[in-house]
Design brief:
The termini are far apart. It is flat and about 75 Å long. It has three domains: 93 residues, GMP Synthetase, Chain A, domain 3 (2-Layer Sandwich), CATH 3.30.300; 52 residues, no CATH class; 106 residues, no CATH class. The strands form three sheets. It has a three-stranded mixed beta sheet. It has a two-stranded antiparallel sheet with strand order 4-5. A hairpin with a 5-residue loop joins strand 6 and strand 7. The N terminus and C terminus are likely disordered. The protein has 299 residues and is mainly alpha-helical. Helices cover 59% and strands 8% of the residues. Helix 13 crosses helix 14.
């Protein structure tokens, strides 16, 4: 006899994986990777054949198109695709989609990547697991009907228990920001440090959007940052804006913003010669470097 369908069971099965990832500090990465590994389910198999996601930065999803025809067609579907992605994830994660000329190697198995991240080696595996741990782990995953998935989640949960005990044995303390265990000499955990860095970078981008001519001294009044972080965000925004401009655009708001950003020059110092000369130099300087990422050589 087939088991009767239960919507509650279905919801529990769908939510237990994100909850487990959250407990392990991997929820954000899990959500992000859902776009890559469920791309065909989100956009459809036909689009998947020609358009592939490459990376996500500050809410912008960069995709690769295998032909100019599909790149052009995709532009008309962009708003719809953004809605589909965010509906799939359950919240507004992607704000825009841009094309990139770089194509990264696709990772076929997310589970193997996840296991490598949480399998911290022989020291974790040496931590004993009690009968109570096994019972609790079985309880956590008992609603999952798929046997392979249930066993994987059980393994993840048990490893998290082992890891917590190992950290406590080494004197780790609760992170001041989130409560996760962290080395006592580092009161803020790695995940929180990364989040703090991302928050700073996002704030720097916002400042550049409002004041493209801002320099490090200006930005450091509002953000606790260093010069390298400011330069990195400036170069990233330069790339994002430059990728949207047509080769003969010298007068749009975005073109003017790009000049101010690239030269760190305020509006009152701009003139027609500076704008054209700067944009021509910038377009000439855009190049592929040996790390296969587009960077800007600022003079």
């Amino acid at each position: 006899m087939k088991r009767a369908y239960s919507n509650n069971l279905f919801e529990t099965g769908n939510t237990i994986i994100p909850k487990t990832m959250k407990n392990l500090g991997l929820l954000k990465e899990y959500k992000k990777n859902q776009i890559f590994y469920k791309w065909g389910d989100i956009v459809g198999k036909e689009i998947e054949k020609h358009i592939s996601p490459q990376e996500i930065n500050f809410g912008v999803l960069y995709v690769y198109a295998n032909s100019s025809v599909w790149a052009n067609n995709f532009q008309y579907l962009k708003i719809e695709i953004i809605e589909k992605i965010n509906d799939f994830l359950g919240y507004k994660f992607v704000k825009d989609i841009q094309f990139t000329r770089l194509r990264k190697k696709k990772i076929d198995n997310y589970s193997s990547v996840l296991e490598r991240k949480i399998d911290l080696g022989k020291y974790v595996r040496r931590v004993p697991i009690t009968d109570e741990d096994l019972i609790l782990a079985d309880t956590k995953v008992q609603q999952i009907e798929d046997e392979k998935l249930r066993q994987k989640l059980k393994t993840i949960y048990l490893k998290s228990i082992q890891l917590i005990r190992l950290k406590k044995d080494y004197g780790w303390i609760a992170c001041k920001r989130c409560g996760r265990l962290t080395p006592k000499e580092k009161p803020i955990c790695f995940n929180c440090l990364r989040e703090i860095k991302e928050e700073k970078e996002a704030t720097i981008i916002e400042i550049f959007e409002e004041m493209p001519w801002a320099n490090y001294q200006d930005i450091s009044q509002y953000v606790d940052c260093n010069m390298n972080m400011v330069k990195k965000m400036r170069d990233k925004l330069i790339q994002m804006i430059a990728s949207k401009l047509s080769p003969d655009d010298y007068t749009s708001v975005e073109a003017i913003k790009l000049v101010m950003l690239y030269k760190a020059i305020s509006p009152e110092k701009l003139n027609e010669y500076i704008i054209k000369d700067t944009l021509n130099k910038l377009r000439f300087d855009m190049a592929f470097w040996d790390n296969n990422k587009i960077k800007v050589k600022r003079k």
